[in-house]
Design goal:
By secondary structure, this protein is of the alpha/beta class. It has two domains: 225 residues, 3-Layer(aba) Sandwich (Rossmann fold), CATH 3.40.50; 167 residues, 3-Layer(aba) Sandwich (Rossmann fold). The chain is built from 13 helices and 16 strands.
């Protein structure tokens, strides 16, 4: 790509130690020989939702870098990620402790969609890297989302990504379910709490920009689940002018997706069902989940671990060095790996004269992150204000996830007039 700066996964030791480190500040987590990093994650909480794999992914990447000599002679001292229990109050206290007591240079990874601690980090110019789902990543200088700003300005003409819509469209085409001249329709469901209500408007705009008719965008489903999902299924089944939509996207987590999928099947729905959270080894290792989610499509913003690329194989090797030879990552482990890789490339771009200020100035003056065939291009500072659109898709077939579309990136497009 023209104008893209690509960084290797690991800088050789001779390059990483080419200049003597300067401007060490232990209060900012930087010494001549180390950079302290810690994260926050949801490892327990509503509906059994967990992103605990992110700490494994981050540690795996940092270990590779340290084995190659670190960054300009500094090793990454990764102190792990603390569980916020899906609690906004815990988020704030955790990041304050990380910065004021643990003296971290950056909060990485941020593995929670309920991240109220971002305001504190922004006020104190502490870099942090996470999904991009939330306002701390939008219009700030220190919040970096690997989805860019996933809750952008929704005024007509503002840029949004068509990536999810294009990925779903590709699946519909594979299934032979696209009708020429007819807009495909989609119904979407969201949790009633947490990031659910905030996620609905941008996703609706993105699907419309991608050429879909949004038949429903339901934000009434309790995150902890319910005993009876049939009313929601019936609402979906009649949402497309009294008929079922072409596709359904369950933007939920945990047992909610299972309940909705089973209710849709019981109601007679025949089209494809998509989600963004069931892709994990836990799904394939649980006979009940395998049965309930059979045929389900899961959308990823990273390359699936089942894809056959050298960068994927290197990632798997690094993770298994941390978690054991049989370890199979979920999407969150890959996101932790990506967050760590982005931070390291920012450090390399900054050089040996390292403070939070020098890194933020460098990155926000023009910086691109990408690992080909693993993580798509993320440009800065542009991604503080707009989303990044890269997606892949897998389908549960039998006891295995099968890649139905490798990671593909799409240029942003303007929101059409109402």
């Amino acid at each position: 790509m023209a104008g893209v700066v690509l960084f290797s996964l690991i800088v050789p030791t001779s390059v990483a130690s080419a200049a003597k480190p300067k401007n060490s500040d232990p209060q900012e987590g930087v010494t001549p020989t180390s950079i302290t990093v810690g994260g926050v994650e949801v490892a327990s909480g509503e509906g059994g939702f967990t992103e605990a794999g992110q700490a494994i992914g981050a540690k795996a990447y940092f270990n590779q870098v340290n084995a190659a000599g670190g960054v300009f002679g500094r090793k990454i001292n990764f102190i792990g990620a603390q569980d916020d229990g899906y609690s906004a109050t815990s988020d704030v206290s955790i990041v304050q402790n990380l910065v004021e007591q643990k003296h971290v240079f950056a909060v990485v990874p941020v593995a929670t969609n309920n991240f109220t601690g971002g305001s504190y980090l922004v006020q104190n110019n502490v870099p942090f890297i996470g999904s991009g789902n939330g306002t701390p990543y939008c219009g700030t200088q220190s919040g970096f989302g690997f989805l860019g700003c996933a809750v952008p300005n929704l005024a007509p003409g503002s840029p949004v990504t068509p990536a999810i819509g294009k990925t779903i469209e590709a699946v519909l085409k594979q299934r032979g379910e696209l009708t020429k001249g007819v807009k495909p329709s989609i119904a979407m469901t969201f949790n009633s709490s947490g990031s659910g209500p905030a996620a609905a408007p941008p996703l609706v705009a993105e699907m419309k920009a991608a050429g879909f008719k949004v038949s429903a965008a339901m934000t009434t489903i309790p995150a902890q689940g319910t005993a009876d999902y049939s009313p929601y299924a019936q609402q979906i089944m009649t949402s497309n002018n009294g008929k079922p939509p072409s596709s359904v996207f369950l933007v939920n987590a945990g047992t909610v997706i299972v309940g909705l999928k089973e209710a849709l099947v019981a109601a007679g729905y025949k089209g494809p069902v998509f989600d963004a959270t069931t892709y994990s080894p836990q799904t394939t290792q649980n006979p009940q989940l395998v049965q309930a989610l059979q045929g389900e499509y899961s959308i990823l913003q990273v390359q699936p671990a089942e894809a056959n690329f050298p960068a994927v194989k290197q990632m798997l090797k690094a993770m298994r060095n941390v978690a054991g030879a049989s370890y199979v990552p979920d999407i969150y482990a890959e996101e932790g790996y990506e967050s760590a890789a982005m931070l390291v490339d920012m450090l390399k771009a900054t050089g040996p004269n390292l403070t939070r200020g020098t890194m933020l100035t460098k990155v926000n003056s023009g910086f691109n992150f990408e690992i080909p065939n693993l993580f798509g291009e993320i440009p800065w500072p542009e991604s503080h204000a707009q989303p990044v659109g890269c997606d892949a898709a897998v389908q549960l077939k039998g006891k295995q996830w099968k890649v139905v579309q490798d990671l593909e990136c799409y240029a942003n497009i303007p929101i059409p007039p109402a």
